[in-house]
Amino acid sequence: MKWEDFIGLSSTPTVNVIEAEKVVAFAQALGLQGDRNEHHILRQLPTFPRTFNYGEVPRMKWPSSGLIHAEQSYQYDAPLRIGDVLTCYQQLTDVKRKTGKSGNMTFLYVEQRGLDENKEPRFISKRTLIVPEHVAARGGVQ
């Protein structure tokens, strides 16, 4: 199968709960100290949604290693709070193939979204991942 076969397909939605302990652990892993109020800390962690489970797109297998993280952005429709219950999913939105000095590369554009209990959008994460030719040669999705 080719990456292009998965464009527009969504993963199985997965429920995530924002727990205070996980917020504090994430902050400590990043070296943040000071205010121990979890709500305050959460506002300082725009990348915290990276810790969520977004489910899997059926039959789409990510390489176990070798992906290059090229870019990531977050847009928030409302602040995240301790205790929020979010339904999260991901979708491959585009694929581009390019040739550079290092050989052939596949650029994967992925969106990850979180909805609140009322199905209202809370955030969207947009990521660009690069699959180098030597990683693609190992098999799986090409």
Strand and helix layout:
Layout: E1 14-17, H1 20-29, H2 38-43, E2 68-76, E3 85-100, E4 103-115, E5 121-132, H3 133-136
Antiparallel strand pairs: 1-3, 2-5, 3-4, 4-5
Describe, in plain words, how this protein is organized in 3D:
This protein has 142 residues and is mostly beta strands. It has one domain (3-18, 53-136): Thiol Ester Dehydrase, Chain A. It is 14% helix and 38% strand. It is built from three helices and five strands; from the N terminus they run βααββββα. It has helices at 20-29, 38-43, 133-136, and strands spanning 14-17, 68-76, 85-100, 103-115, 121-132. The protein has a five-stranded antiparallel sheet with strand order 1-3-4-5-2. It is globular. The model has no long low-confidence stretch (mean pLDDT 91).
Features:
142 residues, mainly beta, Thiol Ester Dehydrase, Chain A, 38% strand, five-stranded antiparallel beta sheet, globular
